[in-house]
Each structure stands twice: as structure tokens, then as C-alpha cells.
Amino acid sequence: MSRIARIAAQEILDSRGNPTVRVHLELESGARVSASVPSGASTGENEAVELRDGDASRYGGKGVRKAVANVTEVIAPELVGLDPARQAEIDQIMIDLDGTPDKARLGANAILGVSMAVARAAAADAGLPLYAYLGGPGATRLPVPMMNVMNGGKHADNSVDFQEFMIMPLGAPSFAEALRYGAETFHALAGILKKKGYATAVGDEGGFAPSLKSNEEACDLIVAAIQAAGYAPGKDVALALDPAASSFFAGGRYRLTKSGQGEKSADEMIALYAKWLDAFPIVSLEDGLDENDWAGFARQTATQGRRIQIVGDDIFVTNPAFVRRGIAESTANAVLIKLNQIGTVTETIRTIDLCRAAGWGFVISHRSGETEDAFMADFAVAMGGGQIKTGSLCRSERIAKYNRLLEIEAALGRSARFETPFS
Ligand code: PGA
Ligand code: ZN
User: Of residues 338, 389, 401, 409, which has the active-site annotation?
Assistant: First the structure.
């Protein structure tokens, strides 16, 4: 066992050109690792705090020098000399050092960067790849990707209200084949958009972001692309949606203003989704309603939860306390898992354990602002839930995760498993 010798941090840029935190950690053995923290745009109200400098003279106030200083000046002195394998203890030390319920003092960006680097260091020290270190010898299941091929909402400047239109290659025999199904469908979609005179520029997560006539048209175009690529919609490649409804909810109404499709109540939104479920091969729906509408979520789950996966993102913010309430109230049947919503590896795993115990699904997710760090790819295999959401089939910060999953699948060889999370 080798102890933590040094922890450093620096301000780097994410995929949107905004500052974020990278942590460098060195063990006494000389092993060096680093980890970079992602950043969201359609963030949940109850997420752990991403500490920004607020100094308008740098990066419009978005600098992270304070978070970097918190790593080097406050956190590092407490962790030097500790065994990196004691992840839970180290994460608790940082939670206690911070002392707030939402990591507002040190910043979840500071704490998570260290937490991820500690996991990597422990894996390196054990001579194991990260997925095997965190997941043990049973970590052989590759996740089915939710690939975000059409972007709207806060992730694109277009006429689409819903944030994410994703494809899930459920019928593929392996992760590598799933990636091929997805990439071929993505390219077929580009061809269809071009033919119709739509723009093929992409949004924050690499999906196309044309100005369409309606939200529905995005689904129509994707189904056409699946067929054009030679796949059977629903069987080979299904659809998954993340409207991110909190981002267009205001004054008690869902306002479909980008597309000019009017305003709706929660029950009208649920009715709209019911219509969509009949019209399109949708298998998963995330954040169909506002993050504070627990009753609406439960009504939707009661009526549609046997047919599709109902995923809570902004409503649960990867927080064990909110997920516990959700399980008690049958608010959903799956949770979107984002490490930086809660801020430590240990708490994230605690949330996943709750999902497993309740028989709920869980989806390991990127943020719309990402880096080339592929920690979450290893994390998805380690947790074994069989689902990952990490963007489209372009933009290297998204592809880095897919390429890492290809490597893991190849390394696992014949023991690698790939199966649908939906029976
Ligand atoms: P965000 O979006 O990273 O901008 O929050 C991702 C999501 O809503 O799932
Ligand atoms: Zn979401």
C-alpha cells in the first residue's frame, strides 16, 4: 500500500469553454493520476454547489480559482499520508471539512475532483483498471448507451423545447456493435436533415440542433434515420427522451415557447407523453415534469411506469435523501446518476445502492459541460446497472467515454456482457 504524497489542482476548461477543476494526485510510490470535474447547464435546484469565483474580470465570473485553492490549501493537508483505498473515510473527511449540507464552502467541484482522483490512485496502487477496482471481479457488464442525437432546450439555440432526444441500441449484441448502430443512425440523420434543408450544426452534447416545426418532428426524423440506417425502430434501436421539463416550467405551467406549441399543465404534459408513447418507440423518459412536482411524477409513474422507464434527474439530484423519498412515494422507477450533483464517489455509490435495493434502474450520466476525462465510463461498468448517458456520436469529450467503453469491452474479452436493461 502506498500513501497519498501530494495533491495539486488547476483551473482547466470544459467542453463549453468554461473553467472547471482538474486535480492531480501523487502517491508515495510515485504513481500519478488526475481527474477532471464536469459541469451542467440545466442544473437541479438542489444540486451540490459548484463553487465559482464570481470575479467578473475573469471568465465572466465563472473562474474556479477558489475551488482550486480549497483543494490545495484546505483539503490536501488533511489527506496527505492517508491510504487512498480508504475512499469512504476520505470522502467523509472532506464532507466534514466543508461542513455545509450542499458543499457550498469548499465547492462540490473541489471535493469531487479529489474524490475521483483518490479512486483512481487506489486503483493504480492495486494494479487494477478503475472499473475492476470499484466494481470487483463481477464488473463485466457494459452499459447500453443513451445517445443524444438531437439537442434542444438549454443545450441548443433552436426551436425545440425538449432538451434531449436519444437513441438506445437495445438490440445490439455487444457494446461495440451498439456504438456502430448509433453512429450509423447519427450519420443517416445528418443525411435526412441535409435533404430537408435543416442545419446540421450540433448542440452542447453533440446532437444536431436544427430549428424544427415541433418537438414531435425530432422523433419523426430520428425514427426515419433508424430505418435509413437499416435498423428496426424499437427492436434494434429505441428512443429515450429527456425533456428536462424544469427548464421550461414557469409560473405553474409548462411553456413550450421555443417551438410555439403553447402552455400545458402537468396532466396535459402526462397526456402528451401518453400520445408520444403510442406514436414512437420510446423506452425511457427522464424529467418529463418539473423537479418540484413529486405528485405529478408519481401520477405519471402510476400510469406509464409499467410501460417505460421513468427517470428522475433534477428531482433526485443523485442525493440519497431525495431518492429515499422517491422510493417511498413511487415517484419514478429509475434515477439519473451524476457524480457532481452530490459531490463524492462514496455518496454516489450510496444512491446507487438504494436504487438496487428498490429494484429501480439507474443511468450513469455525463454533464452537458464535460472534459476528456472518462471516469464515468469505468464507473458505469463498475456499478453494473447496464445504462449510460454520455451524448452523441461526435465531440471528443463524448467520444472519449465511448472509446473507453470499447477498451473495457475488449479487455474483458469473453467475459464481457451486454444486455438490455428492460425485460
Ligand atoms: P445538464 O444536462 O448537464 O446541463 O444538467 C444533462 C441532463 O439534464 O441530463
Ligand atoms: Zn436530465
Answer: 338
pLDDT grade for 282, boundaries at 50, 70 and 90: very high
Which ligand 1 atom is at minimum distance from the Cα of 368? 3
Q: What is the value of pTM for the model shown?
A: 0.98
Q: Which of 151, 123, 150, 148 is nearest to 135 (CA)?
A: 123
Q: Walk across the sheet containing 19-27 and list its strands.
A: 4-13, 19-27, 32-36
Indicate which ligand has the atom closest to the C-alpha of 287. 2
Dist. CA 254–CA 257, nearest whole Å: 9
Sorting pLDDT into bands at 50, 70 and 90, what band is 104?
Answer: very high
pLDDT of res. 423: 75
Query: How distant, in Å, are the alpha carbons of 38, 365, 388, 418 from that of 339?
Result: 9, 8, 13, 23
Which pLDDT band, with edges at 50, 70 and 90, does 152 fall under?
Answer: very high
Asked if the model's pLDDT at residue 61 lies above 80, the reply is: yes
Whether 403 and 409 have beta carbons less than 8 Å apart is answered as: no
The answer on pLDDT for 89 being more than 90 is yes
Ligand 1 shell residues, CB under 6 Å: 40-43, 242, 244, 313, 336, 365, 367-368
Half-sphere exposure of 311 (CA within 13 A, CB side): 26
SS3 232: coil
Residue 140, pLDDT above cutoff 80: yes
* Residues 143 and 388 sit within 8 Å (Cβ to Cβ): yes
